[in-house]
Every structure is written in structure tokens, then in C-alpha cells.
Amino acid sequence: MRKALVLVLLSAATCLGWSQKRPAITGIAFVRVYASEAPETAKFYGQTLGYKADQAREITRYAVNESQWIETEPLPSPAPKTRLAAVGFMTRDARALESYLKAHSVEIVDPLSKGRFSVRDPENNLIFFVQQVKGPAIPTPVPPTAVSHRIIHAGFVVKDRAKEDTFYRDLLGFRPYWHGGRNDTTTDWVSAQVPEGSDWLEYMLNISPDATLKQLGVSDHMSLGVTHMSDAIAALERNHCEGPNCTAAKSGRDGKVQLNLYDPDLTRVEMMEFEPSQKPCCSEFTAKHPTEHEAR
């Protein structure tokens, strides 16, 4: 009798967990990268990109706007193959989202504390979920030297698209945005928007297992949105950006103008216009584009 009652209660608890509604996920909160050379990294994110550093223990934060930031963390030893350390997404209810993921057998890496928790996705990427708050999420003001005021996407190497889709699309509700490739017959990049916003995650497919640090840095990247690339280039010039990449704007396969810079550890920081200026290859966009000031 007792055993039957326990089974009934466990079954009810499982059904309750699976029937939980997923709390809203509204955008990217932060992107964290590893840094092997602190002074050079500080120069890149602080001077070249024009953000102000806010030290928090070993992790340095650079506010991009009131609710998004870039984090740099000292490179651990032994050094991981990738320099992308973590991606954080904003949610309207971190506690409920943690409960939702637990109910779906997702292991919590860092339990909820100070409004954030973390998990590992199916390919072991560290993913944080951060509680959305009213007002500024971080105290550091964004200086007028900032080249962009919006993180619009983050990307990383994906080996098994179907496996990642079970987590991001099936469980978390990410939506198709665009996909394309280096030519019209292959799919090398798959963009999936957060369910309640326009920021997106980009799967970087077909990457060699023997990729160099530079090749991985191209794939494991972040993207800063701009309205007009000419304004971003002018801001980079004022910030004394050095090298040919500082002005090397071009149209991507998605039809959006972009410009690629690389931090000292070769992580790509891609500047991208919010709207396409020409027809994209491979597929049409299936959702709205981000803007500089988007309500969360």
C-alpha cells in the first residue's frame, strides 16, 4: 500500500513538472570570454570598443547597456580549447526557470544565487540564466566612447545540431531566424532567436575537430549591433583602433553589413547592422530584427 502511494506521488510530481510553463527568456544577458593577457584584453574591450571596466573578483565586466554586458575571466590552466567561457540569457523568472529545467532532468551546475543559475547544454557549453530586473542590471554606466549599445547574438561550435535543438528549441522554445552557408547548397550557420525577444544564438556547424585557436575564435564569438556601420567605424577611429580590420566592413551572407575584430585571445567580436541591406542567401528571415533599444 505504502509503495503504491509513493509511486502515485512520484508520478504526480513528474506530471506536474512536465506541465510547468516555461518562463520567458527575453534576450542575451552577457557573453564571457577567457583572457590570457589582462592588460591587452583590458585595452581591447576598454579602449578599442570603448566600454568601462567594472571589476567583480576575478571576472571583469564591461557594460554594453543597462541589461547586457561582456565578461572577461583569466584563462585557467590547463587552458581549454575554446576561449568562449559562457553565455548568459535573461529570463523574467529565474527561480521558476530553474525549477522548469530540473523537472526536465537538466542538471543545475550553479544553483540559483543572486538572481542567476547555470546549466550545461547537450554539448557541454556553460549557459547561465539571469533574473531580469527593473532598472539597470549592473551599476557601471556605458560611456559615450562605446561603439555599440547592444549585444545581438552569440555563436559557438555545434557538432550535433539535432542534439542542441532538443535543448534550445524543444525545451527552451528558441525560434528559427535565419540559416545559411558559405555557398548556397550547404548550411554552416543556424540562427535561433530567444522565444520572447530578438537576440539569437548561432550554431556554427561543420567546424573541423582539428581547428586552430584562430579558427575556433571565429566560430566562438559575440556580435554587437549597430544601426549604421559608418558610425561604428568612426567610433573605432576615435578610440584609436589599430589595423586594417578597423575599417573592413562587408556584407555577410545574411545580407547584413558586418565588421570583424579579434580580442587578444582571437575571440571574434562581430559588429553587425540590425537590418539587412541586401537580400540574404539561402533562406529568408523568419522573425523580426533586433533594434538598439528593445523593450525586454
Polypeptide structure, described:
- This protein is an alpha+beta fold and 296 residues long.
- It has two domains: 25-131, 2,3-Dihydroxybiphenyl 1,2-Dioxygenase, domain 1, CATH 3.10.180; 151-273, 2,3-Dihydroxybiphenyl 1,2-Dioxygenase, domain 1 (Roll), CATH 3.10.180.
- Helices cover 22% and strands 32% of the residues.
- Strands 2-3-4-1-5-8-7-6 form an eight-stranded mixed beta sheet, covered by helices on one side. An eight-stranded mixed beta sheet has the order 10-11-12-9-13-16-15-14.
- A hairpin with a 6-residue loop joins β11 and β12 (200-204).
- α1 crosses α3 (94-103).
- The radius of gyration is 20 Å and the shape is globular.
- Residues 1-18 have low confidence and may be disordered.
List keywords for this structure.
disordered N terminus; 2,3-Dihydroxybiphenyl 1,2-Dioxygenase, domain 1; 8-stranded mixed β-sheet; 32% strand; globular; alpha+beta; 296 residues
Topology:
Layout: H1 2-18, E1 25-35, H2 38-48, E2 53-56, E3 59-63, E4 69-74, E5 84-91, H3 94-103, E6 108-113, E7 116-120, E8 126-131, E9 151-157, H4 161-171, E10 175-180, E11 189-193, E12 200-204, H5 213-219, E13 221-226, H6 229-238, E14 250-251, E15 257-262, E16 268-273
Parallel strand pairs: 1-4, 5-8, 9-12, 13-16
Antiparallel strand pairs: 1-5, 2-3, 3-4, 6-7, 7-8, 9-13, 10-11, 11-12, 14-15, 15-16
Helix pairs in contact: 1-3
Summarize the structure.
By secondary structure, this protein is an alpha+beta fold. It is built from six helices and 16 strands. It folds into two domains: 25-131, 2,3-Dihydroxybiphenyl 1,2-Dioxygenase, domain 1 (Roll), CATH 3.10.180; 151-273, Roll (2,3-Dihydroxybiphenyl 1,2-Dioxygenase, domain 1), CATH 3.10.180.
